[in-house]
Amino acid sequence: MSLGEPTSDSTPFFSDDSEAEEQGGGAAGQRPQEEPASGVSHVRALLTVFILFFINLLNYMDRFTVAGVLTDIENYFGIDDGKSGLLQTVFICSYMFLAPVFGYLGDRYNRKLIMSVGITFWSAVTLASSYTPKEHFWALLLTRGLVGVGEASYSTIAPTIIADLYVKGKRTNMLSVFYFAIPVGSGLGYIVGSQVGRVTQDWHWALRVTPGLGVIAVLLLIFVVKEPKRGAIEARPEHHLHQTSWLADLRALSTNHSFVLSTLGFTAVAFVTGSLALWAPTFLFRAAVFTGEKEPCVEGNCASSESLLFGIITCVTGILGVASGVQVSRQLRKKTARADPLVCAAGLLLSAPFLYLAIVFAQTSTIATYVFIFLGETFLSMNWAVVADILLYVVVPTRRSTAEALQIVISHLLGDAGSPYMIGVVSDSLRKTDSFLWQFRSLQLSLLLCSFVAVVGGGFFLATALFIEKDRHRAENYVPTDDEPIVVPKSGRSTRVPVSSVLI
């Protein structure tokens, strides 16, 4: 299927995968088992989820490999904290601004092809960034920005494919598998980056790991994954979905209180994780120097042990956090329909004090610091899969890629696009001298901002709980109206049919 060939969205409705299996099984003796409504077999759907997980793992490995060797990069280029923060900021900015473009394309064209092109592009650019010469820091900034272009094509679209393969409890389970890749991939980025840099004694080699794995990912995507039919597993036969204009989609999303408030809550998550992702290993190294546990390092591989430990903690806490978030949400749903936003709020509000204690105790106890980081990151990770599930069930299928893109733009624009750079600038402004004492102290004070932002984000999720039931009911019972502006096929062929049956 070509990029310009729209996919059909009209298929029978099954309220659950198990229901589909029962219907097919009941007639097994009379006719062949019916194809799932999504058009993808159950085995291939499961393989698709694990392939998307693998690609998402590479996605986050690639993002945080730079953080694992940040001290080496600072020494190599001779840059300060502000310029170091720009490495993450330029990546997030390009990723953020391109997300709406891919969201628009993902709601209308072949998602598998879009992702294949994007992954190929980001792998090639990542490889190119590993050859940046010492005199051209701007070239590293440019290539990191271009990596964001490729990753936007994947992160915006992949969750919507899972949404078109599964519904209800199975969707939540599969999304949790997909979002395990965020903390695990991030942790592996620190580990691979620091250890490859240590073994080769050259941080450039740390950026040459994910491109090779990216080639494997593209081949799996092309030959194993099958494009599911949009919304087919949810759409009732009498309620055919049609594409509305992009502006109509934006208007509808702007009036969806649960979407808007959960996006603002997720923005706080992005702010905190973005700040910690880039600065935590460097902060831990400076703390070790401050307490006398390590000697100052001005060249060579400086922060490998801190990056390794933080990477391991990120992997473990991510698995625990995502799994516990999903399980607590599932149990709480039996008592209240507001379970998901309440779990997200609890995760952020509980993470705030532990992150604060981790930052404060860094100057007195290394063990306490790592314990508090472990607890803070565990609670913070409870949000990932649950927030994604909220978006998917409060937004109709034909607007989900656009909603994913809009959430990416807002959460990154106000969250981790600026937070690494902001933390670096604040650290530079607070530093009274260039001594190792003030290198640690200034970064410590600037990172305290994360705890405050986490509390604000928890408040947004509590507000989401007030609207979640109404917005979910509206999305599940959505019926297109004749006054909605629709997207007219490019052929311009005139057909006398009801507006609600026009598909793109």
Automatic annotation (TrEMBL):
- Where does this chain mainly localize? membrane
- A molecular function (GO) term: transmembrane transporter activity
Pfam families per the UniProt record, alphabetical: MFS_1 (PF07690)
A GO CC term?
Answer: lysosomal membrane
InterPro entries assigned:
MFS, MFS_dom, MFS_spinster-like, MFS_trans_sf
**Protein's UniProt keywords contain DNA repair:** no
The portions of this protein that span the membrane are 43-61, 86-106, 113-131, 137-162, 174-193, 205-225, 259-280, 308-329, 341-361, 367-393, 405-423, 443-468
State the family it belongs to: Belongs to the major facilitator superfamily. Spinster (TC 2.A.1.49) family.
Q: What is this protein called?
A: Protein spinster homolog 1
Q: Which organism is it from?
A: Dicentrarchus labrax
Q: Which gene encodes it?
A: spns1
